[in-house]
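Quick sanity check, Methyltransferase FkbM domain-containing protein:
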Amino acid sequence: MGPHIAVIDALRDDPAMAALRRSLDSYYGHPERDAAMDEFYAQFIRPGDLVFDIGAHIGDRVASFCRLGARVVAVEPQPLCVRALRSIFLEDDRVTLVEAACGADTGTVRLHINSANPTVSTASSRFPDSAHGAPGWEGEIWDTTATVASTTLNALIDIHGVPAFAKIDVEGYEDAVLAGLHHALPALSFEFTTIERLLPQRCLDRLGALGFSEFNLALRDEMSLALPGWLRADDMAAHLRALPHETNSGDVYCLSQPLRH
């Protein structure tokens, strides 16, 4: 079961949620997309698993993980997104919401907020500079900042346990998130963009040091792996470097042990 449609409709109609209206329209109310997402993530997630969603935004992945029978720790620093998440998952005791950024250290971090498009708000000071003037990123403005709480993957593991899978989508701050992880998980994903070519290499270097050994990717928002087989870290790095700018973004999927069947 997904979030109740009446809750989503109420959020769409709430003037305070106007900045999230595009995301609500894109990510909710599309059964075929939901089914494709569930089929895709079922490769990594089994009923009863613990999953971390780092950068939960408004929770479409959280909803998928719940449909697969997982318990989910959803980490999101933006107050507007947190308000939406609380409304959407209010009655689902499988979801634990952590209002914080995730990075290399606990404490606080400065969040660069894109008020018109909160989905690309970021704790990375580099990311807005990389987007400035880049094709496909025209008109994106990070117009304000806020100091928010920061946690780490290690701290989350200490509290909630070791997840079977972690989704990391934090707009150019993925390397900092991985710096706060000190041992391998069975599987995780991290987002990449073609406006920051060095970030995936830093992530892959960190993951290799932690013991991750197999890598694949999904391009843009596609719910399928783009490569027929799993690559080593250096081969994945070369593949990412060769992607055209127009690819824009995607997610790298990383394994430290074979997929369960």
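Posting the structure with no commentary besides this: The CA atoms of residues 154 and 182 lie 7 Å apart.
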